[in-house]
Structure formats: structure tokens, C-alpha cells
Amino acid sequence: MITTSSHAALAVPPGIGNGASFRLSDLLARRRDGGNTVFVSDSVLRCTSGGDPLLYTAHRDVLPPRQGLGSSWFADLVAYQPGVLSGGEPHRSTGHWNTSSQLEVFQTLTGRTLMITAWRTASGRQALRYQECPAGALAVIPFGGWHLTLVLDGPAAVVNFYTDLPTTEHPTAKRDADADKYRRAPAVEITAILTSDGYQLAGPGLAAWGPAQETTEPAWLRRALDGASLADFYRSADQSTLAALIRHARRHLPAHSPLYLETERR
Prior knowledge:
The strands form two sheets. Strands 1, 2, 3, 4, 5, 6, 7, 8 and 11 form a nine-stranded mixed β-sheet that branches. A two-stranded antiparallel ribbon has the order 9-10. Helices cover about 25% and strands about 35% of the residues. It has helices at about 5-10, 25-35, 40-45, 205-210, 220-225, 230-235, 240-250, 260-265, and strands at about 20-25, 55-70, 70-80, 95, 100-120, 125-135, 140, 145-165, 190-195, 200, 215. The chain is of the alpha+beta class. The protein has eight helices and eleven strands.
């Protein structure tokens, strides 16, 4: 579980300063630059009032990068601001596709977030799920999956660590391979909007992706971390512990079919 002391140590990362601020204008710019690789709802695009709110501040390498099992591991912290965009969409991340070999795990430290993920199975079936993440909750992204984080109760702080596992084609995966993640493939055109009694998923992508499945924190992931917070696990895990996490992930996580990314890229 996250403790007050562990959160405080992450909330003011030494040597990282104030982090990189990301505003609504930055989200819109990514959409323009990447074409259809970033989804922004029509209500947000049409809005001409409300200023340029701060969505989040990203602290990259909040913990020092480390090496393990032939790959580099990184830890980031994102501090989301509370707020609602035009049309009822809460403050959010950009949303992007991970690489097919990327293992990425999240833990909400404070506030409450919503994680939406999507992927296509090897048989071509589209899969969509969402998970509410109160403080302390863990979430993990399918290999190669798309994901979007939204703020249900803010401010919200979310820590994550990730690595691109070595493959036959890329024996030593490097962070540079993820530099173009916001242009990797067309976005899943799904978000969430707040309602009088909570929230609901919305967007034109629902017609194609179908009903979303609600999910909860994976029990296997909590066991793999042996009860530690994500930050403490990242700091202290030895090679055998990291290897066990990878084995669990490969056993339990679905993988996105690359066919979608190849045929839909434009």
C-alpha cells in the first residue's frame, strides 16, 4: 500500500524541478500534429471559451532509471489537476498505443482516476475495458494496448514504471524506440464524460469497439509486487523479482494484434 511518506518522497522529486506542464492547447496541438492519432471530442474542439487549463504536470524519471534482465526500466509521476472540459469530459491524459513489447504498470497515489484500455486479440476481436482506480489501486496495460487516463476526483497523482522487454528483433530495447508514441497508430475514439450519478464512456469509437468491460485491480499483479507500493517495488526489486513479474505479465496479460496497427496506420 502507498504510505504518506512514500507519496511525499515522490511528490517532490529531487532534481526534477516543476516537471513538464501539459495544457489543453498542448493536447489540441498533438491532435493537429498527429492527425487522427490523438482523439479529442467534438465538444472540446468546438469550445472557444474556458481558457487554457492545466491538465497535468509530468515528472519524468521521478526515480532513477535502472537496468534489469536486458532492458532499461523507467519510472514517471504525473500530477493531474481537477477540472472538467467542454462536454463534461474530465481532465485527462493524451492517450496512446504502447509498443508490442512494453510492460507498463500504474498506481494511483492520490485522488481517483479512470483507466480506459483497448486492444485487438489475435483472432481480430476488439476488446475494451475500463477500471476505476482509487488511491493505492494498481492497473496494467495489455502488451501493445491503447490507454487513456481521466481524473474522476482530483487532484490525482499517478506513478508508473515501464520497460520494453527484449525481443528477437530488438534484443536490447531502448527508450528512444518510444519517442513517437503519440503518432504510432490511429487513436481509439473513446473517452468518458461525467454524469449526475458518475460517468459513462462516450465517443464515436463505441460503435466499433462495442460494450466495455469493467475490470478491477489484477490480483496477480498485487501478488507479484508482494504487497509493496509500485515505487518501493521499483526501488528494491532484484533480478529474480523482476523476472517473476515478467513471467506473471506474459502469462496473464493479453497482447494486441499488430495487424490493426499495420492496416489502419495513415
